Hints:
By secondary structure, the protein is α/β, with parallel strands linked by helices. The protein has two domains: 28-264, Alpha/Beta hydrolase fold, catalytic domain (Rossmann fold); 290-514, no CATH class. The protein has 16 helices and nine strands. The chain has a nine-stranded mixed sheet, sandwiched between helices. Strand 1 (31-38) and strand 2 (41-48) form a beta hairpin. 49% of the residues are buried.
Amino acid sequence: MPSHVKNILVVVLLGIALLSLWNLRVDGRGITRESIRVGETPATVYRGDVPGPAPVVLVAHGFAGSQRLMEPFALALAGRGYVVVTFDFLGHGRHPRPMRGSLMEQDGAAVLLLEQTAEVAEAALELPGTDGRLALVGHSMATNILVRHAQKNPRVMATVGVSTFAPTIDASTPPNLLLIVGALEGRLKEEGRRLVSLSAGIQPDSVSPFVTYGAHATGTARRLAVAPRVEHVGVLYSPTTLDETHSWLDATFNRNSVDFLPGRAERRGLWILLLMAAVFFLARPMAALLPTIVDPPGGANAPWPRLLLVAGIPALATPLVLRPIPTGFLPVVVGDYLAVHFFTFGALTAMLLWWTGERPGINKVLEDAGLKGPGSLRVVIGAAGIVLFFLVLIALPLDRFFSSFFPAPERLPLMLAVLAGTLPYFLADEWLTRGTEARRGAYALTKALFLVSLGLAVALDAQSLFFLLIIFPVILAFFFVHGLFSRWTFRSTGSPVVAGLGNAVAFAWAMGVTFPMYAGV
């Protein structure tokens, strides 16, 4: 590609990024945010420039989310005059304390989350400018907690459950229940029909989406809304979701609210996607700025038989080796096992690389990696550049506009512990899949084998490792995005070590920040 075309492309990408940032900030115009603490719980109060006392809307996030993830609701409702309060559940976001108790039982961790919700709701109702009326909005895991709170708190006049799974819902409680589900959430959509049918007195197949059964005035209103073309996370950003939510609350509280900034938050998901896409494509020209470290480039230059052997044996052996070994040393849901899996897989890969290769001495290995002589400083500079790119252009925007992505101090030791696991894996894997004669598709193959290895681990211990299945898509997305980053980095530096260090830090950061903290029973 000619240099002038590259320059034009960079300018266009920067323009898209700046336009996205501007539109994301526009959503907050006229909204005041006040950070508060309810006990140890971090919370945020959102108010619009609308006079008079107003009902309180308590908004709660789902598993592995944070209060920032629910900001589309906060902005849209505060802009219509509601006083909105978001908060981080125990173990999530920037809450300093972990969850405790069983994650799968109603009398386990849910009890503590229910107590926390009651405490935050009470504090929210005591805020100035509120009129004593309360509504609840929750996503996924939070729907179970909010429904149980609504069934105990007579001041709750309406509940909005997004992607709802709440076993305690019955024919009469909670009052004025709106169920919202993404069109791509098939099982939850059927569950929504069933829950509406309980109140309406009809068969689930007879429940029509976007039809209200019962009446708000008597607390019997119930409705199913299906947001088109979205799944479990996209449903939070759907215009249908936000429109249905504020219309439902207006009907409950007999209000006719109008946002002074029409369309607020309804395109937020689109602008986040555009921003991340622009940053993703900017990574390529920015990687070209990294210094050349090793020439000719280092790496194993592994042929297919060696690739299959060196990556295949760890894929099968790692879950078997770890099966009898107890984990639970880190207060992060499945994070300890994942860190140990990375470490074991990486250590076996490194040993097999040495055993199946020329078995060079340590000096030769350091020289080929660029870690000996003046190149060692360039390795540090290159890895620091990748980490800086990740923190400034990925983590910072995600933290500001999507979900909590910068750690509370309590999470820093967790991140370092996870890093001890990701470093061996990414360094060994980068070396295996790179070189002047590296096989096309080698990187994808080793990542597929790693995911197969995790799948085998879950099959061997489904009860303890079930939550690994939930994060499979996240790991896959990380491998894809950072795989391209590492490819572009290798082309510029010639050293697999630079990308290996950068990817290890980025993955450990993401795990340490987003995985819920959990202290067991």
